[in-house]
Specification:
single chain, 8 strands, alpha/beta, about 210 residues, about 25% strand, five-stranded parallel beta sheet, Rossmann fold
């Protein structure tokens, strides 16, 4: 197993959102998080990524194993597409940005400042950063937002290649990405007692970015 979660309790601010969450993810496997809006998917991903401390339970994985992609793209607007990828590649100690550029068809945009990109182009660049992290576990929160059908397929292909290479992915998404070796986890049964699944304040979008 590359990640094991045991009896995890998660909170958003002072409010407990989830309790008793247990699952494991193996190398080469994708876990798709399901549940209604506000159920706690973002909170769970933030907790797995170490951005929010758990209230209880354990999360076991290798050190620095998780790359987290949040709702916001978190790009450096003044840097070009290539410079953004080079910046993150340097942070994570990797060198080659070419595979990331190729995977998301960013070559025609390589010299364009990120601040001048469309929403879909920004999303492609944000997701391309996953390929320069070198981290085996991808935790992804609604990663296909702003992507058209063609680029959603590109993203799915990138995840599939990551899985074939022995990586793993935990993805909160409402669409079928057609990934092999994917299974679903409905988090609705883990919603903390007394918190309605439809509570709009249970799990608002995270507006920062770990990547």
């Amino acid at each position: 197993m590359v990640l094991t979660v045991t009896d995890l309790a998660c909170a958003r601010g002072p409010a407990q959102v989830l309790s008793g969450v247990s699952f494991s993810v193996s190398a080469g496997e994708a876990l798709i998080l399901r549940g209604p809006n506000g159920a706690g998917k973002t909170t769970l991903l933030r907790t797995l990524a170490g951005l929010t401390p758990p209230l209880a339970g354990t999360i076991s994985h290798a050190e620095d194993a998780i790359a987290y992609a949040a709702h916001a793209d978190g790009l450096k607007a003044q840097l070009t597409v290539a410079e953004n990828l080079t910046f993150w590649a340097t942070i994570f100690g990797t060198l080659d940005i070419a595979p990331a550029i190729a995977a998301f068809a960013l070559a025609p945009l390589a010299d364009r400042p990120a601040g001048e990109l469309s929403a879909g182009q920004k999303r492609r660049l944000s997701l391309a950063r996953l390929l320069v992290t070198g981290r085996p576990i991808w935790a992804l929160d609604e990663p296909t937002v702003s992507l058209d059908t063609e680029n959603t397929a590109r993203f799915a292909a990138a995840v599939e290649a990551h899985l074939r290479a022995g990586g793993a992915a935990i993805i909160a998404t409402h669409i079928d990405l057609g990934l092999p070796n994917a299974r679903s986890l409905d988090i609705t049964p883990f919603i903390a007692k007394g918190l309605p699944a439809s509570d709009p304040f249970a799990d608002d979008p995270f507006l920062g970015a770990a990547l």
